Amino acid sequence: MSVLALVRRWVVGYFNGHDAAVARAICAPDYALRIGDVTFAGRDEAWLPAVDAQMRAYPGLGMTVHETLAGDGWAAAWFSEHGATEGRAAAWSGVGIWRGDGTALSGCVAQEDYMTRRRQLKAGTVDPVDRPAVAPWDVEPAPRDEAAERAVLQWVGVGWPRPGAVVCDDEHVTGEPLAFDVAGTEVVELVSAGDRVAFSVRQRGIFRGGLPAPASGPAIATLDVNGLVRVRDGEVVGGRVIRDRMGLWSRLRAAA
Question: Where are the alpha helices (DSSP H) in the chain?
Answer without folding.
Answer: 3-9, 20-26, 48-57, 114-123, 146-156, 171-174, 245-255
